[in-house]
Amino acid sequence: MKRKTQRLWIILTCMIGFAIAIALILSAFSSNLIYFKVPSQLINQSISNSTTIRLGGMVVANSLHHQNDHHTPIAIFDITDGKAAIHVKYRGILPDLFREGQSVIAIGYLNPQGIFIATEVLAKHDETYMPKEIADALRKNGKWDPRFGPPPDPDSWNHMIKPQ
Question: Do the beta carbons of residue 101 and residue 160 sit within 8 Å?
């Protein structure tokens, strides 16, 4: 083989190896993605049960109920974005800052019955904080405009839409 064709084969082999490496990296990233959704998006889309989701919204006032299963606490509550609400079931101890009427993010999956099974619940860290995604969803739904003051207080969430 000529020297020129040898170089061509080496370059082609390197490019194929590089393409395979990029494909493996992209497939690894896509399997670890966690999508952020609000209740109205989650209800209107069909999502597989194996997809991990970050569900964000406000905890509906008077929706929190506690149960025990073999000495393990279970919290059942509703999360809303102002348009729709969804039931959330969380097995474990809720964060100290978790309260009704405040914004939370629950990480988990949607079961076939339409209940969101949370594996982790994140609560806001002070009274003025609201995750950007939740604030955007509330603004988009016309439930809050930051030009007119802080986010809605917990009492206003009593009249939100109940889960379907």
Answer: no
Residue 59 per-residue DSSP state = E
Distance CA 19, CA 36 (A): 30
Question: Which tokens go with 80?
Answer: 């809303």
State the Rg of the chain over Cα.
Answer: 23
List all residues 6 or more positions away from 128 whose beta carbon is below 8 Å from its beta carbon.
Answer: 150
Q: What does the pLDDT look like over 12-62, one tens digit per residue?
A: 999 999 999 999 888 887 767 777 888 888 877 777 667 788 888 888 888
Distance CA 17, CA 13 (A): 6
148 pLDDT tier (thresholds 50, 70, 90): low
Residues forming beta bridges with residue 104, ordered by sequence position? 57, 123
Distance CA 134, CA 58 (A): 8
SS3 (DSSP) at 18 = helix
